[in-house]
Predict the structure.
Amino acid sequence: MEKWINHTDTGFRFMKPPVLWKSRGILLHLIRRDMLVTYKQTILGVFWTVLKPLAMAMVIVFVFGRLGSFPDYGLPYILIALPALSFWEFFSNSINRGSICLIDDRGLITRISFPRIILPLNASLRNTLGLIINLAVTVGFMLYYEVSITLNLLLLPVVYIFTFLLNFGINLWLSTVNVFYRDVMTLVPFILRAGLFISPVAFTLQSVPPNLQKLYCLNPLVGLIESARFCFLGKEFLPDFQCLLISGASLLALLLSGLYLFGKCERKFADVI
Amino acid sequence: MEKPIIETFGLGKKYRISSSDVKNGTAEKSNSWIKSAFPFYGKEDSWALRNIDLRIEKGDVVAIMGNNGSGKSTLFKLLSEVTDPSEGRFVLRGTISSMLEVGVGFHLELTGKENIFLNGTLLGMKKAEINKHFDEIVAFSGVEHYLNVPIKKYSSGMYVRLAFAVASFLRTDILLVDEVLSVGDKSFKEKSIARMKEMASEGTTIMIVSHDTSVLTDLCNRAVNFQNGRMMGEGQVKDFLL
């Protein structure tokens, strides 16, 4: 076995599938570590995963359902909010973590050699368990309000995969830039707070002025959240196909540019971080 | 004849450091706040390592000697692919593992047992391998009774013993050891040196950085001396003792 390392080598080491496959154990252990660590020394433990979005749903139901004026969907407002909120929680949790995932594990980056892309990958999968619990809670509410459950629910894994890809694309960007400029980690919580209001979490795409809808769909979350609602609530919430295409395209652009940026910069991480 | 297990050709590593860091303590200091606020202002290149032509034969136990800042750790970071060379190239003819610091990836909130698996995986061990050596690792570290206790409750001695124990069961062709033999008390130190000898006798090529020259004389059959990022000579450990 001979392995040459040259100063002219460029990035993209992680693009080799065998390299990634060999490191799957690291990913699994990091996932385990994060799960174990999150709820150590808490009283409520894993129940926090359910409580957080539920409390948030209450606030949204109160503010938007009671105070705001929205079209009547013929459904309890909480059922409009919860599917969207579940995915929003998954998304925002992962982005919050993703922006700091590299500098948080700088101990690993500066001391051992492993495919660093595992770190943003891990951050993007974070809280999958929480998402599943939240989706189950949503189904519980549907049963309570006697809303019929359809086979559309089976499409949820597809929505999940695309949300994961969105997380991954954004995390590649944020984590990389944050290594060089820590401004990112100050900005991210603010942007996420704004994001909750500019994404159709508390309302639907129909509430957006028709002439702006196409532009609005550039936010990949629009397509994802609308699809999530469709999975739960059925035909009336069938997302606009064009909108899905636009959201999908901007998701793809984010992901590819993120991979490119990460690959270009990855070799400098250990020196700069 | 067998080719050397490690060969480097004109290997070098350069860092960019702001000039105020370099000329610390001079009149430059008066405007240092400007530099810290505008990071693009006044950067200089500084070579941590340059023109390194090194040949390590299979089975060698090599002492890497030199003062602080002579580039020893940078060499290890390059060889273990943590960081990239700025010039030159090198070849590895075997698997490499490094103990640059003990306890990579140790998490204070996790228990000793959880950390053994996390750390072992990060160092490149397979799950089956860790399982196989688990009892040995635990026995070596001597923390049997605290396996299910979060390591934040460990004494610093227990911490480093556990960390060293995991790393010392690595199966690899080349092992880089950076200043980790001086952890623990006297008896543990003797145990870790014995362990190193055992690995060397199994054919592992070892490169060691240590400021403890008695350890180096005891273990190594070769020595390389570094000063200010340059290789200043090769020979036996005793040749470079002051």
In short: Residues 22-28 of chain B have pLDDT under 50 and may be disordered.
